[in-house]
Design brief:
Largest sheet: none
Number of strands: 0
Radius of gyration: 17 Å
Strand content: under 5%
Structural class: mainly alpha
Shape: elongated
Number of helices: 7
Order of helices and strands: HHHHHHH
Length: 175
């Protein structure tokens, strides 16, 4: 593995604690800060640029830009109809830059599973074991909000961890 590819994986790995903070903040306050989204896009663009230099092709960056624009364009009307928060829309638009084109399929499958789990938990909070947690989910249900940044961040963390582990195993065993 080249040093540039290792640096690219390091930039993605640095996004994991930030994604954890975004998930926690969205869960507790239902807000996603613009500074966190900007930090994610900077880490993602840096990682993509390093990968593009190693590969000698800008295809992954172009695919990520197209996917980010498409996600923003598709999700923006949901924000306008007050079905989705602005932070969730911005976070989803940044994810292709952070994940990269090669990880979008894994991210999409994980996001689908986690979004369904979130919808089930929000719909049936009585199935949860902890009393205080159940009361909090019922409170969110009464307010009509769902912290959708949590499944987005968890899916991104799992995808990045998968990519870092695969990259590290390729580094340990180059043959």
């Amino acid at each position: 593995m080249s040093p540039l590819l290792a640096a690219s994986l390091l930039l993605r790995a640095l996004a994991i604690p930030l994604l954890g903070r975004i998930a926690w903040t969205d869960f507790t306050t239902q807000k996603i800060a613009n500074r966190d989204v900007l930090l994610l896009i900077c880490l993602g663009l840096g990682s993509l640029q390093l990968t593009a230099v190693v590969a000698g092709s800008w295809w992954d960056m172009g695919l990520s830009a197209l996917a980010g624009f498409l996600l923003f364009a598709v999700l923006f009307p949901f924000w306008a109809l007050r079905k989705l928060g602005a932070g969730d829309v911005k976070l989803m638009a940044v994810m292709p830059f952070l994940i990269g084109g090669s990880g979008l399929a894994v991210f999409s499958i994980l996001l689908l599973v986690l979004a369904l789990a979130t919808a089930i938990v929000m719909r049936f909070p009585f199935m949860l074991p902890e009393g205080a947690f159940r009361v909090y989910i019922q409170h969110l249900d009464r307010k009509g909000v769902v912290p959708f940044g949590v499944p987005i961040a968890i899916a991104a963390i799992c995808t990045i961890a998968f990519e870092v582990i695969l990259g590290a195993s390729a580094f340990a065993n180059p043959f």
